[in-house]
Design a protein that fits this description.
Helix content: 40-55%
Strand order of the largest sheet: 3-4-5
Number of strands: 7
CATH architecture of the largest domain: 3-Layer(aba) Sandwich
Shape: globular
Order of helices and strands: HEHEHEHEHEHHEHE
Largest sheet: 3 strands, parallel
CATH superfamily of the largest domain: NAD(P)-binding Rossmann-like Domain
Strand content: 15-25%
Number of domains: 3
Structural class: alpha/beta
Radius of gyration: 17 Å
CATH class of the largest domain: Alpha Beta
Length: about 180
């Protein structure tokens, strides 16, 4: 769900080229529908070199990363000089390892994002939420509902999500 919104917001904010990475054809197709310019399957060997190739060797200015483990390290290789990597999850549950000297050589940065921390600061959160709602209301930002499930299926839906078999936002419905 975050990826489909991120692709659209990148376009709204004027990104020149949006590169979407995903682990399935269906997720890549969704990214294309949302406006991604380039699609890369990160389960394929050497995907990080493909990212560098489609940027003419430069790398990306901003990358979002939520998988962790080896994907994190490969995403670092995709960054341009002065690029920023935003980490917002650890779906693989594998540890992050990084040598800070790797960042220094190219003046890169890694930033963490954790929504519950932002929620403690309404002065930061509310303007962004208002902007998002305005984009949705105007039709510029489309929300992708991956499925609506009865609350009784919460455990099964969570397992599917952990297995990376879902796409879009998932809704649990209480009757």
């Amino acid at each position: 769900g975050v990826g489909s919104i991120a692709v659209q917001l990148a376009k709204i904010f004027g990104a020149g080229k949006v590169i979407a990475t995903a682990s399935t054809v269906e997720k890549l197709e969704l990214a294309k529908e949302m406006g991604a310019d380039e699609l890369i399957d990160y389960t394929q060997e050497g995907w990080e070199m493909k990212v560098r190739e489609v940027t003419g060797g430069k790398g990306v200015d901003v990358a979002l990363e939520m998988a962790g483990g080896d994907i994190f390290n490969k995403t670092l290789k995709c960054l341009a000089p002065f690029g920023r990597l935003v980490v917002f999850g650890n779906a693989s549950r594998k540890p992050y390892t990084m040598n800070p000297q790797q960042l220094m050589r190219r003046n890169q940065s890694v930033v963490g994002f954790f929504l519950p921390q932002i929620m403690k600061h309404p002065d930061l959160l509310l303007p962004s939420i208002q902007d998002l709602f305005a984009y949705v209301a105007s039709g510029e930002l489309k929300l992708t509902i991956g499925g609506i499930y009865p609350i009784e299926k919460a455990a099964a839906v969570h397992e599917e999500m952990n297995a990376r078999q879902t796409k879009g936002k998932l809704i649990l419905q209480v009757k």
